[in-house]
Amino acid sequence: MKEVVLGLLGLGNIGGGVWDLVREFGGEVEKRTGVKLRIKKALVLDVKIHGGKEVPDEVLTTDKNDILEDPEIQIVCEFLGGEQPAASMMLRALENGKSVVTANKMALSLHFDELRAMAGKTGAGLYYEASVGGAIPIINAIQSPLIANHIEQMMGIVNGTTNYILTRMTAEGAEYEDVLKDAQRLGLAEPDPTADVEGYDAAYKLSIAGSLAFHSRVKVENVYREGITKVSAEDIAFGREMGYVLKLLAIGKDNGDSIEARVHPVFLPADHPLARVDGSLNAVYLYGHSFKDMMLEGRGAGDAPTASAIVGDIIQAAQNAAHPMPYLREDPLPVADDWHSKYFIRMKAKDAPGVLAEVTGLLGGEGISISTMMQKGAAPDGKATLIFITHEASEKAVQRALKSMNPEICVVENVIRVEE
User: Global pTM?
Assistant: First the structure.
C-alpha cells in the first residue's frame, strides 16, 4: 500500500466534492489501486465556510504556504477557478516538485506553456482530465489509447449550460432570454452567464483539447468565438423544418498546413450523433485516420462527475513512475482565420420581382451556391423571410457577400454555420 499526501487549493463545490469522494469512497479506491489518499490540508477563505462534509479543523487553512511549501504534500489539487491566483499557485507547486491536478480550464489554457515547461523542468506531473469534459475521459483518450492515430477532426458539446438552453428552445419553441432566466433560477446558469453563453468556456476547453489532439499549440486568443445570444426560436424552428438541430460546438480540424479552431452555434443533421445529446450532457466526437468515428458522452460538469475525474488523475499521478508530457510541435501550425462550411442564412427581403435574383447574384459573385432555399410569406410590411442553405463556401467569402447586400432590399438577420 502506498500513501499519497494531498493538499487542496479550494474547498468549494468541486473541492468539497473531492473531499467527500475521498472520504466516502477512498477505502474502495485503495483496494482497487493500492493507493491510500490522505488529504493533509485544504485552503479556504474562511474556515467556517466550505463545501466539504465533516472536515476536521486541523485540515483547514487560510495560508497557501501550508500547502505549497509543505514537503510532505506530494500532489496539489487546484479548485480556485479563474486565472489568478490559481495559475501562480500551480506554478509554485510544480516548481517545488509537487504534481498538480486541476479542472481549471481558464488558468490552464492561458498559462499552458509555462505550466508545462515547469513540469518538464522539475519532473512533476501536470494532470487536467476534468478541465475539458468533466467525467468524460477525453484527455486520456487522446493521449493514450488513441495516440497511434492522426486525429483529423474533433467536434464537441463541451458546455452544459448552453446545451440545456438550446435543448429547451428546441423542444418548447421558447426564446433564449426566457430559457436563460429559467436556467439561472434552477442554478444551471450563473447570475452572469457570459462565460458560458458567449462561448468563452468552450474556447478555453478547445484550446486545451485541440493542442493535444493536433500536437500543436492552439492558443485561446486564436480560437474564433461566437455565442448563442443571437439565436432565436425562429432560427431553430426553420432549421428543424429543414432537417437540422442546433448546438453550440467547439470545432477543431487539422487541415495539414493549418488548424481550424472555432466555437459557434452549428446546425447539424438530425441524425448526427451529436444532435441527440440533450440537456446538460456533454459529448465529444472524434475522427481519426485509424479508428474512424468515435464519440464520448457523459456529464461534463457538476461536483460529483468532476470529482470522479480529479480522483482518477490523482491515482494516475500517484502510480506513474515518470509523469507523461504530451508531445507538441516546436513549430506550431497556424490557426486559420478562414475555413469552409455550409451556411444557414436568414434574411428579411422585399417581396418584389428581381430581389431573389439580386441576392443569389451577390452570393454567386463570391462563388457561393445555394443548396436549399425556403421562403415564408410576406409580412404586412411587404417583407418576406428567406432562408438559404449554401453549399460549402469560404467564411470570408460569405461575410463579403452579406456585407455587400443593399439594406433597402434585404436585411440579414442571422447566419449559422452548418456541419455534416
Answer: 0.95
* 36 annotated active-site: no
Q: Are 212 and 147 in contact (CB under 8 A)?
A: no
Q: Provide the 10 A C-beta neighbour count for residue 4.
A: 18
Task: Say yes or no: do domains 2-133 and 340-418 share a fold.
Answer: no
Q: Report the pLDDT value the prediction gives residue 380, as an integer from 0 to 100.
A: 67
Indicate the residue type of 285.
Y
C-alpha cell at 65: 504556504
Beta pairing partners, 285: 155, 295
d(CA 119, CA 98): 9
- Whole-number Å distance between alpha carbons of 190 and 4: 35
Helix (H) or strand (E) holding 350: strand 340-350
Handedness of CA 367, 368, 370, 375 (dihedral sign): negative
Q: What is the mean pLDDT of residues 125-148?
A: 93
Backbone phi, psi, residue 372, to 5°: -145, 145
Query: 14-28 pLDDT, tens per residue?
Result: 999 999 999 999 999
Spatial distance between the Cα atoms of 100 and 89, rounded to a whole number of angstroms:
10
Write out the CATH class of domain 2-133. Answer: alpha beta
Burial of 19 (0-12, 13-18, 19+ CB in 10 A): buried
Please give the CATH architecture assigned to the domain spanning 340-418: 2-Layer Sandwich (3.30)
pLDDT of residue 379: 66
CB 155 within 8 A of CB 284: yes
What Å distances lie between residue 3 and 25, 52, 55, 189, 216, CA to CA?
A: 15, 21, 19, 39, 36
Sequence-distant (≥ 6) Cβ neighbours of residue 146 within 8 angstroms: 286, 288, 291, 294
Number of C-beta neighbours around residue 86 at 10 A = 21
Question: Residue-wise over 331-345: b if at least 16 C-beta within 10 A, else e?
Answer: ebbebbeebebbbbb
Distance CA 351, CA 383 (A): 5
Kindly state which CATH superfamily the domain 148-298 is placed in: Dihydrodipicolinate Reductase; domain 2 (3.30.360.10)
Domain map (residue ranges) of the chain: 2-133, 148-298, 340-418
CA distances from residue 239 to 75, 158, 360, 394 in whole angstroms, order as listed:
49, 22, 20, 21
Closest CA to 339 of 413, 270, 254, 404: 254
Going along 104-230, which residue ranges are E strands? Answer: 126-127, 151-157, 224-225
- Of 41, 98, 205, 342, the catalytic one is 205
